[in-house]
Design a protein that fits this description.
The complex is a heterodimer. Chain A is mostly helical. Chain A is built from 17 helices and six strands. Chain A has a domain of 264 residues. In chain A, the strands form three sheets. Chain A has a two-stranded antiparallel ribbon. A two-stranded antiparallel sheet of chain A has the order 2-3. In chain A, strands 4-5 form a two-stranded antiparallel sheet. Chain B is mainly α. Classes of the chains: A mainly alpha, B mainly alpha.
Chain lengths: 406, 343
């Protein structure tokens, strides 16, 4: 179905089900219970899950398939955000033109940068993309202030023309982003006993776009084009010796991943119509690298998993403070409680980046394939056990070849 | 003419910092073949060595002085650093004043041991892994080091002044026959430049004129053969890693008075230093130094108002622009060797 084989189809269905049911899945704890702070089912966070999922999926098409490590992908996200906000300022508050423009602009931008950067490979490519991204970041802060509004960031105002919409609503406020009248921020709340589930229009728009991007990336992974990209990763020299020019393929991958980043940027701006230069800084590029590696570069599901993982811990871990910790360890004797709180304190709250750094190092050292590889290893552990129980060992008991006469 | 000279001088101190960090990066890359993204963090830790020493030296005890009253009429509490009480106010005050230069002695053993621990504990396991993995793991380490420093010292910059002697500026113009005040230059920056020159010279002399340095250079050229000759090259490379860490750390110590240390200063310098290394040519020590000074000076020229009025914003992007042009026209960088990092 849809040009996918059975395995990929079930993967797509699983991701789809997870994305569409996320408001339930991410809210497992009743709203007033002590565990409620582990709930991630609120619109703002869920939107970021899927938006950064899109970003990481796109990055993975470049890094996972071709092995080109770009350290400047946040520039495309930033450019996408800026163009979306400009669309809101000039045309209308409908998100469709904004998202389209952000994808197109990011695509063009990545075409230019990719064309230059892809002349080199390896660390030189990383440095070139980093240099371009830092240039865009610095320019956005200084000279391009008329376009980017410098440090303040680009925001909507009451005086924006908005040709196809209204400059301000009847009650004199800035209109909100919408999809043909459906407001992005409108949320349908469902009380189910002690649980509170929130269904946000913006989230579902992002989720559907994420599913489309995921589907597209599956198709790319399984296509001859994807095969070509993998060949580039495994041995570019050999590809060149066979007389093949690999650059059009890598450039196409670069532009596609740039467009994904632009889409993510456009969505970020659609959910919250402002754009700042800090989205383009190289730490932001580093973050998407972290997401992809943490989840598992080169796998289909990895980047989404990594993006969700990092964004979840960023929000949840950074909210834990000392009083919460005291609440958890309250059952212990006082001295021990204080001791444990002191130990845990540097790793949560404001220090959550320390946890992220340690986690990331551990993944790179022990699990180069990321969380997906970890999952596979655990899975293998179990399947090996079950195999042993039925006594079959494929290597030592090869299947008997059937007689021709049979 | 005097304006040009002034810009060259202004470029020298930043250029010195770039050159020192890039030198360390290149040493590590040339010997161990590892791309160390945590090198900026080492620079930052060096800076915080200066902060720590000046904090230790100003540890003080309080004495209630009955003869003096504060504005509320209570007896005034007088803080006296221990150092002053041990060595007398004169000598003690001088020691506290000279905290930053003293931190050099303090930082060398610390940085070398950090370098050893890093190499033996982590980097050793990454020789055989792809460069991307090395970049990623050291990037993670940089985040960790940065957060640890932030945890202990807070997120705000900590001013760490230079000794009183070096406060104020030197009037270069008079020396060269220009008008007074045409070229004035802070003393400490002169000191920094001189210090950087000494360190760079020392590293080159060490590599060029000692037996140890000769073996290391041989190992850089052909590691396998040197190993086959029965020389324990790994041990020497570990020592070189320690030296590279110490170079970055000392660059940081002396930079503390120029720019108050904060926990993310390493990352800010790291990106630029990598650009410097690549412009100079991966694995080329003279290239790293040359590119460091060149980019530092270019940056300060680009921030002249005359230049900015022709090309607005050039001061923000000049380094990256130069890097892009050089990488595209001279693929190996300014002085890169053949066959290094060419996949």
């Amino acid at each position: 179905m849809l040009g996918l084989n059975k395995k990929d189809m079930s993967l797509l269905l699983i991701v789809g089900a997870l994305a569409l049911l996320a408001p339930f899945i991410l809210n497992p704890f009743p709203a007033d219970s002590a565990m409620a702070q582990f709930n991630a089912g609120y619109p703002d966070l869920m939107q970021r899950f899927v938006i950064f999922g899109i970003f990481a999926i796109g990055f993975n098409i470049l890094f996972g398939l071709t092995g080109y490590l770009s350290f400047g992908h946040a520039a495309f996200l930033g450019v996408g955000s800026y163009s979306a906000v400009w669309m809101f300022k000039l045309l209308s508050m409908n998100v469709v033109p904004a998202i389209l423009l952000s994808v197109i602009v990011a695509g063009l931008f990545s075409l230019v940068i990719g064309f230059v950067s892809l002349r080199r490979s390896g660390i030189y490519f990383s440095i070139l993309t980093l240099a371009f991204a830092q240039m865009s970041f610095n320019l956005a802060y200084s000279v391009l202030t008329p376009i980017t509004n410098g440090e303040t960031g680009l925001q909507l105002t009451l005086n924006d023309p908005r040709v196809l919409g209204v400059s301000q609503t009847a009650d004199g406020s800035i209109p909100v982003t919408n999809l043909f009248g459906m407001e992005m921020r409108s949320t349908f709340e469902m009380d189910l006993g002690p649980w509170l589930f929130q269904f946000n229009t913006g989230y579902y728009l992002c989720a559907i776009l994420m599913l489309l991007s995921f589907y597209l990336s599956v198709r790319i992974f399984r296509s001859p084009f994807g095969m070509m990209l993998r060949a580039v990763k495994s041995n570019q020299h050999r590809m060149n010796y066979t007389g093949l020019n690999t650059r059009p393929y890598t450039l196409a991958a670069f532009v596609i991943s740039g467009m994904y980043a632009g889409l993510a940027g456009g969505l970020l701006a659609s959910m919250d119509p402002l754009a700042g230069a800090e989205r383009m800084q190289w730490t932001a590029s580093g973050e998407v690298v972290l997401m992809t590696i943490l989840g598992g570069a080169g796998t289909l599901l990895g980047p989404i998993l990594g993006a969700g993982f990092i964004k979840y811990f960023e929000n949840i871990f950074s909210k834990i403070n000392d009083s919460v910790l005291h609440g958890w360890f309250g059952f212990m004797p006082d001295g021990l409680e204080d001791f444990i709180v002191t130990i845990v304190h540097p790793f949560v709250g404001k220090g959550w980046h320390l946890t992220l750094g340690l986690m990331f190092m551990a993944v790179v050292i022990f699990l180069p394939g990321g969380l997906i590889e970890g999952g596979q290893r655990i899975g293998k552990l179990f399947s090996r056990k079950s195999k042993k129980s039925d006594g079959g060992d494929a290597e030592h008991h090869p299947k008997q070849t059937p007689h021709v006469a049979e | 003419m005097d304006a040009i000279l002034l810009q060259i001088l202004n470029g020298l101190d930043k250029g010195s910092a770039y050159a020192l960090i890039a030198l360390g990066l290149t040493l590590i890359f040339g010997t161990l073949g590892v791309v160390n993204f945590a090198h900026g963090a080492l620079f930052m830790i060096g800076s915080f060595c200066a902060v720590t020493l000046s904090k230790i030296l100003t540890l003080s005890y309080e004495v209630v002085d009955e003869t003096q009253k504060d504005f509320l009429g209570n007896p005034l509490k007088v803080k006296t650093p221990y150092v002053e009480s041990w060595f007398g106010p004169e000598a003690g005050g001088a020691i506290i004043d000279w905290a930053v230069p003293l931190a050099i002695l303090f930082a060398i053993p610390i940085m070398i041991s950090i370098g050893f621990i890093m190499e033996r504990g982590l980097i050793k396991h990454f020789y055989k892994r792809p460069h991307a993995d090395q970049i990623l793991v050291t990037f993670g380490l940089a985040i960790v080091l940065q957060e640890v420093i932030k945890y202990f010292y807070g997120a705000n910059p900590i001013p760490t002044p230079a000794p009183d002697v070096f406060r104020g500026s030197f009037d270069f113009g008079v020396l060269l026959g220009f008008d007074p005040n045409a070229i004035i230059y802070p003393y400490w920056r002169l000191v920094y430049f001189g210090f950087a020159a000494v360190i760079i010279g020392a590293v080159f002399a060490f590599l060029q004129f000692t037996t140890f340095g000769m073996v290391v250079r041989a190992g850089m050229a052909d590691r396998e053969t040197v190993g086959l000759l029965g020389i324990n090259i790994d041990k020497r490379f570990t020592i070189m890693f320690g030296i590279a860490a110490a170079v970055a750390g000392l660059a940081g110590v002396m930079y503390a008075p120029i720019n108050s240390p904060n926990y993310h200063m390493g990352m800010d310098f790291l990106v630029l230093s990598f650009v410097v290394v690549v412009v100079g040519g991966m694995g080329s020590l003279p290239g790293a130094v040359l590119a460091g000074f060149m980019l530092g000076i270019l940056e300060s020229f680009a921030s002249m108002n005359e230049v900015k009025s022709i090309i607005p914003g050039i001061d923000q992007i000049i380094i990256y622009l130069v890097a892009i042009i050089i990488l595209l026209t001279r693929p190996r960088g300014l002085m890169g060797r053949k066959g290094v990092m060419e996949d």
